[in-house]
Design a protein that fits this description.
Distance between the termini: 79 Å
Structural class: mainly alpha
Order of helices and strands: HH
Number of helices: 2
Length: 93
């Protein structure tokens, strides 16, 4: 094999290696962006869960107060049954 063909072979190999490394670096950059996006989504979801837990706590407290008022149990039971009936009808549609 001549010196020039060996040189050309090395040049082709180096070019292929540079292309492979470049693609790998691009894939890593895309993966990093995707990871950052997912972290942001998770942080947003955690904030939403915390907000829902706070709201649930408030409503639980309010329902407890109503339950302890005269006639409160009956009112809550009526509202619960109406809501349950309404939910079943929506689900069947």
């Amino acid at each position: 094999m001549s010196k020039s063909s060996t040189h050309t072979s090395y040049l082709i190999i180096i070019t292929v290696l540079v292309a492979v490394i470049s693609m790998h670096m691009h894939d890593r950059a895309d993966l990093k962006v995707t990871t950052i996006d997912r972290r942001e989504e998770i942080e947003l979801l955690e904030k939403q869960v915390e907000q829902l837990q706070d709201e649930n706590s408030i409503f639980t407290s309010m329902l407890g107060e109503i339950e302890n008022e005269p006639g409160g149990h009956e009112i809550l039971e009526k509202l619960y049954n109406e809501s349950k009936w309404s939910y079943k009808n929506k689900k069947q549609r």
